[in-house]
Write a structure and sequence with these properties.
This protein has 106 residues and is α+β, with helices and mostly antiparallel strands. It contains 3 helices and 6 strands.
Length: 106
């Protein structure tokens, strides 16, 4: 049974790819107490919630996901398309926060 648990824990560490730092995500963090992450395309809301709680030791209130379609762009003289990706808006419970820069308490 412990092997199954370690496989699930390993999956949780792979679900979150990176935080999304943009003007829109900063506004969401300030206004709605949400953190935005890029996640695996096949990740579920439950997996995202468990992964954030395990990685950052915070309590998650809700998770909203958005499938972002890749833009059609030109690469030099050739037309191309960027990859599709999935974005997760994670709302933390009151009193919990994630500090990516390590500035809390400074």
């Amino acid at each position: 049974m412990s092997n199954v648990t370690s496989v699930k824990d390993e999956r949780l560490f792979q679900v979150i790819l990176r935080p999304v730092i943009s003007e829109k995500s900063t506004i969401a963090a300030d206004k709605d107490h949400q953190i935005v992450f890029e996640v695996l395309p096949d990740a579920t809301k439950t997996e995202i919630k468990k992964a954030v709680e395990k990685l950052f030791e915070v309590k998650v209130q809700t998770v909203q996901v958005v499938n972002v379609r890749g833009k059609v762009k030109r690469f030099g003289r050739f037309p191309g398309k960027r990859n599709n990706w999935k974005k997760a808006y994670v709302r933390l419970q009151e009193g919990h926060d994630i500090d990516f820069l390590g500035l809390t308490g400074a």
